[in-house]
């Protein structure tokens, strides 16, 4: 299915069974609620549709995966080429029992919080931390997401991804190259599923742990605002929020962007912010922390796409940062 109006790029793309949407707004899907459109948005019908698309897509057309929009900042100029957003076909979650051990087969498009709740209802313990992780399983694999002392590296048994040619790749934990908020899997591979390990446990006990995590998050994080989660990674042995606070950045603003008063490692769209406001404010925070503590903060939030003055021509992209 192709959605009007037509676009020159459509004529170069393979036929699909899913949707190809021209100039598709991404801001409604992004937690910050900012950012420009996707030149083309592809919503694959299923894994076969996705692998066929990747196998037959011209090599010069860039592809970007867009998950739940929780840990990403889409720049104001939008994203060139094709943006892939996984559909419900990639959100299945089922539990396979092997004695008291649970194998949780889950699609990469499944929301972490939903997986945590389904595991609770099925009596699967060990994955409670996912209730505190915004985003999808695919995003958790990509950045080794975690919360409250646990991370995806602790529970992943196997992952599957498609490489740029559409070939299915099966990955072990060793293949993933996990480190703090990072995996070594090539950026242009697209995760499609994973097997996570859990254990049999009492649903009431699981519920109690999850409730404590949710309460702690509610008390300490600005959850009911337009934010993208933790902005910067914690430097070794340090806390990013403490460095930001010490540098006098709590409550700092730029346009409609603001450093959260509640947790200053969160940036907030307080109303009318642009992506440039948010990114510029983040860079100012980095500058002040470097000046105050001589520590360089590294972005945890992914910044993707083109700045507003980016131009596209038939010969490719010109100017700005991709």
Can I get a quick summary?
With 322 residues, the chain is an alpha+beta fold.
Task: Describe, in plain words, how this protein is organized in 3D.
With 322 residues, the protein is an alpha+beta fold. The chain folds into three domains: 2-88, Uridine Diphospho-n-acetylenolpyruvylglucosamine Reductase, domain 2 (2-Layer Sandwich); 91-208, Uridine Diphospho-n-acetylenolpyruvylglucosamine Reductase, domain 3, CATH 3.30.465; 224-304, Alpha-Beta Complex (Uridine Diphospho-n-acetylenolpyruvylglucosamine Reductase, domain 1). 23% of the residues lie in helices and 28% in strands. Strands 7, 8, 9, 12, 13 and 14 form a six-stranded antiparallel β-sheet that branches. The two termini are 28 Å apart. The model is unreliable at 1-5 and 310-322 (pLDDT under 50).
């Amino acid at each position: 299915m192709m959605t009007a109006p037509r676009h020159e790029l459509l004529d170069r793309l393979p036929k699909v069974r899913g949707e190809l949407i021209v100039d598709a707004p991404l801001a409604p899907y992004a937690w910050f609620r900012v950012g420009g459109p996707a030149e083309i948005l592809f919503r694959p019908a299923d894994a076969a549709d996705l692998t066929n698309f990747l196998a037959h897509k011209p090599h010069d057309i860039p592809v970007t995966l867009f998950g739940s929009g929780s840990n990403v900042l889409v720049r104001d100029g939008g994203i060139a080429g094709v943006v892939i957003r996984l559909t419900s076909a990639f959100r299945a979650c089922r539990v396979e029992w092997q004695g008291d051990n649970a194998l949780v087969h889950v699609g990469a498009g499944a929301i972490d919080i939903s997986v945590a709740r389904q595991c609770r209802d099925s009596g699967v313990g060990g994955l409670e931390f996912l209730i505190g992780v915004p985003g999808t399983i695919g995003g958790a694999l990509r950045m080794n997401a975690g919360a409250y002392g646990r991370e995806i590296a602790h529970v992943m048994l196997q992952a599957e991804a498609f490489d740029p040619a559409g070939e299915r790749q099966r990955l072990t934990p060793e293949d993933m190259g996990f480190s703090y908020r990072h995996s070594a899997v090539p950026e242009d591979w697209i995760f499609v599923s994973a097997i996570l390990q859990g254990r049999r446990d009492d649903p009431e006990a699981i519920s109690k742990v999850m409730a404590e995590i949710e309460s702690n998050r509610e008390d300490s994080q600005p959850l009911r605002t337009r934010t993208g989660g933790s902005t910067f990674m914690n430097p070794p042995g340090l806390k990013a929020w403490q460095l930001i606070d010490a540098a006098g950045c709590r409550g700092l603003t730029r346009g409609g962007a603001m450093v959260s008063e509640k947790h200053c490692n969160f940036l907030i769209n307080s109303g009318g912010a642009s992506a440039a406001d948010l990114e510029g404010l983040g860079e100012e925070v980095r500058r002040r922390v470097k000046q105050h503590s001589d520590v360089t903060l590294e972005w945890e939030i992914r910044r993707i796409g083109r700045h507003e003055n980016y131009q596209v021509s038939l010969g490719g992209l010109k100017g700005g940062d991709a």
